[in-house]
Amino acid sequence: MTPIHLLLVDDHPLVREGLRAVLGAEPDMRIVAEAANGLEAVRLAQQHQPDVIIMDVLMPGQDGAAATADILRHNPAARVLILTSLTEIERILPTVQAGALGYVAKNRPPAELIAAIRTLHQGGVHLPGGLARRLLHAGSPIPATPPLDALTERELEILKLVAQGLGNDAIAAQLVISSRTVGVHVSHILDKLYLENRTQAALYALRHGLVSLHGSGFGDTGQLG
């Protein structure tokens, strides 16, 4: 089994030590590098090409939102999981706009972080219900988009599954199509709706009533704020 390669990004050594202890004990995970700020994170992400990047928000030099944007500019396929103690939506919003695909509060049990890492690695999103609700109430980082009838029936079906947190392989298995075909459909969905990433797609689906906050992508556990 090929392990999930992780990059840890946090300016507090004790936090990184705790993450090493928790994640290093998982047989399917391997920490390939650690960074104490956003600038180091961008450099190490290019060097090591990790599967999942666990990113703090507030750091010296360059914060998590700016680092996420830079990492995705170099590698649009990178998967960034925000691990934060922040509750102010104004502080978290830039990371959504930058393209992060998952969010876990630092006061949550380790099992939630581990599950979120695996979800992102499989191509899904992890967006706690409390955060999704607050993003929508705040106007959310979703641009003005065409109505749902811009999508085909198959694209609408796949959008619902994306919003439930499923990755391409899981969607492919459920619909009995290839993962590559799912990826093409997801790209078409994002293009048609003028969305940047799967997080925005999940919020779009929630806003339009395609899924509820109790869908797997919007678990009520781990609410941020």
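(ticket continues) Second input and output from the same batch:
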Amino acid sequence: MNILLVEDDFNMGELVKDALEENNFTVSLCRDGKEGLSTFIKGSFNIVILDVMMPNMDGFTLAERIKKLSPDLPFMFITAKTETEDRLRGFELGADDYLTKPFSIKELVMRINVIARRIHGSMVADSENSHFTLGNLVFDYAKRELGPEGNMERISSKEAELLKLFCLNPNKVVRRDFLLRNVWGDDDYFSSKSMDVYISRIRKLLKSEPEVQIINIHGTGYRFLVPGGDNESHDERGEEE
């Protein structure tokens, strides 16, 4: 797996680069946002890891530039900034994860592997369940597209993963912790806040089909209402078995 690491702290950058290479990743290390963007344009990467506070171009701005060039490429932030607003901004930009310093390399590797499994591994394994009809809308999981036939809109990988889990459990309660573990790999506070952002985005995408709704079930999770789906209203098949 090819990783673009953009970190202006010399010692931290070298430490993370060496540790990731010891775990069989290929790492390109850049020292500022401008160099990171140039390297990204010239290369081919599977994931991007960004510091937030950097010279020439900060991590948030670099993430926006990268997302415009490659909307589906996963990226994560590693930063000393601990403010909730900064984390939420990162997730609103589409970040797959946000890790604050100091952190263990073991945890970083684990989080990278979670992203890799979700982005690459699950696509093949679940290929038999990739096309769903939602009232007048069509959701193509394999292509990550949602909308009426002939006017499909590209959605992010996390939106696709969440929507697929809902589609596999129509009109049933899907537990919040189940969604977090299967899409984010954990159910901590910031993953939970990130999921709220993505579910809000999905609701907006579904707005043109009023019969398809994501309903909050207080203290439990959600129910995905869809016409013609299974109506076993109290079945909680969303839970892991």
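Agent notes: Residues 105-125 form the longest helix (21 residues). Residues 175 and 220 are 6 Å apart (CA to CA). Closing as not reproducible unless the customer responds.
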